[in-house]
């Protein structure tokens, strides 16, 4: 082993060309291991899953480092199948009974609706990878949490150490702080077993890490924060000059039902109606309206309702076009769901732009902790139209007047959040641990 390259198996249901939010973290992780001298094999879902259900960004596949092997495991998603020709008679004539039966089947092998049936194919694929080339470390990222099963089976049958990388959380509802699953229930028991065996456990922010450390103090020393960060290659260029009217405010990301877009729209209408620095301003939404490839009708209706106020939906933006998209922005809109534990990878990319950032979210969000010292950050204390309008007006004024020194300070602030810097300490520690064990 001292002379051979160590082999890491990375497990992520969503991997390029998936356009899901977690795909950028997945990319950064595998590329970081590759740069550190590891051979990397990825287990992910088949390409057709993303093309059919969640949407794809083909440009992402070019970002995977050369030499990384991607093994695609077929994934079936009956609940998302809209082809009536493939439906059973039970689903056609008794949809409620079919749904109830589907939920039971989904959770038979693993307690996760939609994803549970993937456990067995995923475990078989992991064991086959290990048979072909022994795995020295498994890194599994969630959600879905079924990804952890590949790590568990290799650890149980071959003693392969593993890392659990939480992009969100399993038991914790990051929006309201409650539990997503029953205390002492099946999900809780499986998670506790996995945490007991994990070499490291990663979380995206300190509030989520702290919650888990308090819940599982015996494992706290193995819990680490690996923030999402931004990708320097594709991050926006820092804007060091003031903008000119009319201003463009931009949002890039996925708008889910948790995102207070209606509250933002009301505040935007109020602020824009007052003229001044916002006279003729536009608010552009880039990304996806909902989690699936077809935009949410309700969100499309919202955009249409506020079209006369300069609110537009511009559609998805490929990763390769993100940098160019920021060039048209004069300020960034950070609209997030409420919750002490909520953050977003977009926070760091926004900061790299050195543009004013308007936070339209609960001030207790973890994003507040990240942006508190950002020189051009404009947060809100509540989601009332007047409060949001005031933040938008202050950001508009800053966009027109902030000088080069202030913007340079914004760019300097962002540098600490480059995604590769977030990954390096953990990858180095794991490399040392695996190499040391091999030499023992």
Automatic annotation (TrEMBL):
Highest rank taxon of the organism: Bacteria
Annotated protein name in UniProt: D-inositol 3-phosphate glycosyltransferase
Species for this entry: Mobilicoccus pelagius NBRC 104925
Lineage of the organism: Bacteria, Bacillati, Actinomycetota, Actinomycetes, Micrococcales
């Amino acid at each position: 082993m001292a002379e051979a390259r160590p082999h890491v198996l990375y497990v992520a249901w969503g991997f390029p060309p998936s356009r899901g939010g977690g795909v950028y973290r997945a990319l950064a992780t595998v590329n970081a291991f590759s740069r550190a001298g590891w051979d990397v094999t990825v287990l992910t879902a088949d390409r057709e899953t993303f093309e059919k259900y969640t949407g794809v960004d083909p440009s992402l596949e070019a970002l995977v480092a050369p030499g990384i092997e991607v093994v695609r495991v077929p994934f079936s998603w009956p609940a998302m199948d809209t082809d009536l020709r493939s439906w059973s008679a039970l689903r056609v004539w008794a949809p409620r009974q079919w749904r109830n039966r589907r939920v039971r089947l989904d959770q038979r092998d693993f307690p996760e609706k939609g994803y549970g049936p993937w456990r067995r194919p995923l475990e078989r694929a992991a064991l086959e990878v290990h048979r072909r080339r022994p795995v020295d470390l498994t890194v599994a990222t969630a959600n879905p949490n079924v990804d952890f099963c590949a790590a568990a089976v290799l650890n149980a049958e071959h003693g392969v150490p593993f890392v659990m990388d939480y992009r969100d959380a399993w038991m914790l509802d990051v929006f309201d702080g409650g539990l997503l699953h029953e205390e002492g229930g099946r999900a809780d028991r499986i998670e506790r077993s996995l945490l007991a065996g994990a070499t490291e456990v990663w979380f995206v922010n300190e509030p989520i890490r702290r919650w888990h450390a308090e819940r599982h103090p015996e494992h706290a020393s193995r819990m680490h924060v690996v923030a999402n960060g931004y990708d320097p290659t594709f991050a926006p260029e820092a804007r060091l000059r003031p903008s000119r009217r009319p201003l463009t405010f931009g949002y890039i990301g996925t708008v889910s039902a948790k995102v207070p877009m209606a509250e933002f729209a009301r505040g935007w209408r109020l602020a824009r109606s007052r003229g001044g620095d916002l006279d003729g301003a536009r608010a552009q939404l880039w990304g996806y309206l909902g989690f699936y490839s077809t935009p949410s009708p309700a969100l499309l209706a919202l955009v249409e309702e506020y079209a006369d106020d300069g609110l537009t939906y511009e559609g998805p933006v490929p990763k390769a076009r993100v940098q160019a998209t920021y060039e048209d922005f004069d300020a960034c809109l950070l609209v997030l769901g409420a919750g002490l534990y909520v953050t977003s990878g977009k926070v760091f990319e926004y900061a790299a732009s050195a543009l004013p950032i308007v936070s339209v979210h609960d001030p207790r969000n973890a994003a507040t902790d990240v942006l508190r010292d950002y020189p051009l950050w404009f947060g809100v204390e509540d989601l009332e139209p007047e409060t949001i309008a005031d933040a938008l007006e202050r950001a508009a004024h800053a966009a027109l007047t902030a000088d080069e020194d202030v913007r340079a300070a914004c760019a300097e602030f962002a540098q600490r959040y480059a995604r590769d810097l977030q990954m390096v300490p953990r990858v180095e520690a794991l490399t040392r641990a695996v190499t040391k064990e091999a030499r023992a």
